[in-house]
Every structure is written in structure tokens, then in C-alpha cells.
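Quick start: what a row looks like.
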Amino acid sequence: MTEHTIVAATGEPRTQHSLMRDLRLLGVMPGETLLVHCAMSALGWVAGGAEAVVRALLDAVTDAGTLVMPAQSSQLSDPANWRAPPVPESWIGIIREGVPPFDPRTTPTRDMGAVAELFRSWPGARRSLHPTCSFAALGPEAEWITAWQSLGEPFGDDGPLGVLYRSAARILLLGAGFDACTALHLSELKAWPSLPRIAEGSAMTVDGQRRWVRFDVAAGYPDGFPGIGQALVRQGVVRTGRVGSATCHLMSMTAIVDAAAGLMAEQGAPFG
């Protein structure tokens, strides 16, 4: 969607204050811990762009709350697994040798959107140390949320998602669809403990030296997330409203992870 199209479709500019008002009407509460997935173009034209959106979210949770966003950097994943687009086999070794190692301060996000990319470098924000599947957080619980994330189970119980699951956090899909809802990967692990494993790797700094580190991760099946999300909405565990021009979903992380895991178990595993 071009900016021209967004302007034409927006009745009046969205602002930090109007977005914060809409967030409060949706039910975002002061002091809460909130995991946000944002598609900024869905909000309409925003005066101040991504900065205004981040400020509105911080205003909504207040200094007593904690804001969390995905900070994934798939450009550091193993190029042997790339499919969108794939690269020539002759490039794989060159990429593995040449890509800069993960650095929580400088490594940009990829395909996370302008809001998440700005947020990961926001003053005071902390970032977990997984080279491809990190999270950024700001607020009183940020250090605890980002403290640990294993290479092999970045979306598991021991990482940021597990901490959020146990801490009464909520999820806000701010114009984003359920296909972006990272917490549903935790549901997959709960529903299907024997998920297939995929060989992965990434450039990291180990003992002060750049190294290509190999590990394996559980396969994910996000193609099924939109259908799961629709079922969750029908179950009534999701609050739906509008922020700016965007249809948004607000939900308890514990409730939707457990409900989604139940739905996934009923459907059966999508692998043999």
C-alpha cells in the first residue's frame, strides 16, 4: 500500500493522542505487559509515523507497564533454508562467511514492520540474544522477559514467550492478522511436542570471535494461524475493536495459547 493510497483512505490524520485514546477504548490498561504485533499501514495515515505509534503504545501502558515486540532478523538464518526467495547454492557458503554476526544493538529486524524496527532501538529497550528470533522489551519487566532464549527453542516455555505466558501478559494485534501472532508457535509446541526439527545456523560472536553456529529448531506451521485465530474469535476469548482505521485484536496470552493448543491437538498434527 502506497502512502498516497493511505492518505486517500484516511478521513483525518491519526495522531499519538488519537491512537492512545483508541487503545484505551479497546481495553489496553495502564501497568500491563503487552506483546504487540503492528501493521502500521492499517492504522491510516499517522502524523509522526512509527514514532507516534510507539509513543501512543507507551502512553497506553504507562511507565508502570512493559511493552514487548518481536525483533526477528531472518536475514541471519541459514541461507540453505531460504525460500522467499531462494538463493543459488553457490551463494550459501559466501553468505554464511560474509554476513555480519548478530548484535542486539545494531542488527535490524526483517519483515517486522516500521514500528517494531524503531522500537528495538528505542532508548532503554532491551533485546533478547537469539540471532534470528529475538524480542525487544521496554519497561519494568523488560530485563526478565529478555534474559534467556535458547537457540533451539526460541519460542518455547523457557524463552520470552514462556515468560509472557506465565506473567498474565496480553497480546495486541494492531492491524496485524493472526498469521503474525508469534505466541501461536508456543501453542504448537504444547499441542505437538514431537514437532519435526530443522537444521539451522547463524553468525554469532562467541568468545569475541565471529563464528557460524549450527543448531536446530522446531518446524512451525503458520499457514494454519489465520484459521486458528478465527476460531478463537468465535470462542469469545478475543476482544476486537478499532484503532485508527485498523481492526485490532486484544487477548490474554495464557488464554489464547491454551485455547489454540487445544484446537491444534483436535485438528491433528500437520506432519507425518
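That is the whole record. The CA atoms of residues 11 and 44 lie 8 Å apart. The first strand starts at residue 33 and ends at 38.
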